[in-house]
Amino acid sequence: MGVTAVLMLPLLLLGISGLLFIYQEVSRLWSKSVVQNKVVVITDAISGLGKECARVFHTGGARLVLCGKNWERLEILYDALTSVADPSKTFTPKLVLLDLSDISCVQDVAKEVLDCYGCVDILINNASMKIKGPAHKISLELDKKIMDANYFGPITLTKALLPDMISRRTGQIVLVNNIQGKLGIPFRTAYAASKHAALGFFDCLRAEVGEYDVVVSTVSPTFMQSYHIDPGQGNWEASIWKFFFRKLAYGVHPVDVAEEVMRTVRRKKQEVFMANPIPKAAVYIRTFFPEFFFAVVACGVKEKLSVPEEG
Fold first, then answer.
1. Model confidence over 189-234: pLDDT tens digits?
2. Distances (CA, A) of 137 to 144, 237, 298, 309
3. pTM
4. Which of 138, 167, 261, 269 is deepest in the core (most CB within 10 A)?
5. Are residues 184 and 299 in the same domain?
6. Does residue 199 sit in the same domain as residue 288?
7. 117 catalytic residue (yes or no)
8. Which domain, by its residues, includes 299?
9. Is 5 a member of any domain?
10. Residue (of 250, 231, 238, 236) closest to 306 by Cα position
11. Catalytic-role residue among 23, 78, 191, 250
12. Same domain, 301 and 253
């Protein structure tokens, strides 16, 4: 009996691996069929995440409209996509120059986006601007610029494209947000405020447009990793706060987020929170034990201010 069990274990593991492989392949093919021929608009397509989203949706056969504020970098992305794609299975992406921090031009650009294919099936609001520093040292002008890029820009574009979705009674809007739409981190007041505002807007919008079969989804990862991350080791790892903060700051890779955005579109998920256990725990602690959370955060700020920065 013991020998039989030992012999069966490798076969069981092999069977499970085979089932997982089949599931992944079916999911991948299903994802492609869901977005095939769909008009997908991606803002800030020249960012790390924007490029990965463009790659995933382009491979899936979507009709892409790629938006960005640098034409040269948009053309580089265009060449990268078309050089490896099968022309018989993919559509040539269309490029649109868009700077969401310039609210005055968003309405005109939205019309240009609609003119590309006559409609929009999926809007991926990916653009974001970051700033870090003590609140009293960040100018009000910079606060306003952050709000324009992270809040007013995305909602202006969304409002301009939404009537088309409502009239056709179909469509999906995806907001790529951040953990700081859930909780605030010190020295990121303007950024956290803009992310809270954006999340609140799209949560309300979800309830408003559900009757028109328009899906609103939010994907909130922790901080986005660079493609090559090499965190240095130092004495500051010693404290609990610093360990917590580093775990919070490591974040997720753009490739993983892009694949999650595709899954969110395929399954029409309403909300996704991408994080390792430490940030997830922080969100729950902030909700149920706010005084403890604030104490830990305040302790971390005192330690950070007491350690001189190198260079």
1. 999 999 999 999 999 999 999 999 999 999 999 877 654 444 444 4
2. 14, 27, 18, 17
3. 0.81
4. 261
5. no
6. no
7. no
8. 282-310
9. no
10. 236
11. 191
12. no
